[in-house]
Design brief:
There is one protein chain. This protein has 247 residues and is α+β, with helices and mostly antiparallel strands. It has a single domain, classed as 3-Layer(aba) Sandwich (Aminopeptidase). Helices cover 28% and strands 28% of the residues. It contains 7 helices and 9 strands; from the N terminus they run E-H-H-E-E-H-E-H-E-H-H-E-H-E-E-E. Strands 1, 2, 3, 4, 5, 6, 7, 8 and 9 form a 9-stranded mixed beta sheet that branches. The protein is globular.
Length: 247
């Protein structure tokens, strides 16, 4: 049975079920301060930009969050190097000031672990495109977190993103989903997300010792985490890939 896809604006009573759906994001990813501050606001303040899928039993099995923003505003024009973090800042700054948006950015597409591998992510990407078009937009952008990049954290993102299969589609599965939906690579966002914390916090988030200086490879991280034991902290700066969907 094909999942039923709705917007949260259509069914506002589903917000809690969306936010509590099981996922498999690494703990450190959700400790990004910009995301922690703004992500819950999307469903609260921009429900027409939140989509969710239900299975035949009515259980939420996937959801997608997006935000509108003014890419053409003065001082912008290009997709930001601080990708995910900055587009959230732009979107809610524009909302606060009443700036008219001209672009929609995907923020996340999350599929419940028990139903992964069934094509739900592609369905939600298509639904994001359709929803943005229905809201009057002509472009969707996405700071994409390549799904297989964590397997080789020391490979520079600009090298990784150039890899293609014989059919010309991206080597990375998640980049490939976007490409199949019609997206093209725009640029690398080298500092799309920044997560900093004490060594104690990183030990709690990862179960790793974080007791030696230098780069630490963390499961699920796209690049190594920089550890500074003498100063008592570690920092993760994640690169993403900006992809553009013309509608």
């Amino acid at each position: 049975m094909k999942p039923k896809i709705s917007t949260l604006a259509e069914r506002p009573g589903m917000r809690e079920r969306i936010l509590t759906m099981a996922d498999d994001w690494p703990q450190f990813v959700i400790e990004d301060l910009m995301g922690s501050a703004h992500y819950p606001r999307i469903s609260a303040e921009l429900p027409e930009y939140v989509l969710f899928a239900e299975d035949e039993r009515g259980e939420v099995v996937a959801h997608a969050h997006s935000v509108p923003f003014a890419l053409g505003a003065e001082g912008r024009g290009s997709l930001p190097a601080r990708g995910w973090d900055e587009v959230l800042d732009w979107a809610f700054g524009d909302l606060r000031r009443g700036v008219r948006p001209d672009t929609v950015s995907a923020v996340s597409v999350t599929v419940a672990p028990r139903v992964q591998g069934r094509g739900l992510s592609a369905l939600l990407v298509a639904a994001l495109r359709d929803n943005a078009r229905a809201l009057g937009f002509r472009e969707v952008v996405a700071p994409v977190r390549p799904s297989a990049k964590h397997l080789e954290p020391r490979t520079p993102m600009h090298e990784y993103v150039r890899r293609v299969r014989p059919d010309g589609l991206p080597h990375d599965p998640w980049l490939r989903v976007h490409a199949r939906a019609g997206a093209t690579v725009d640029s690398i966002a080298p500092a799309s997300m920044t997560v900093s914390g004490s060594l104690e916090q990183w030990r709690e988030w990862t179960g790793l010792p974080f007791d030696a200086p230098g780069e630490v490879e963390v499961p699920g991280a796209l690049v190594p985490v920089r550890c500074e034991p003498d100063h008592g902290y570690a920092v993760y700066v994640e690169p993403n890939v900006w992809m553009r969907h013309t509608l």
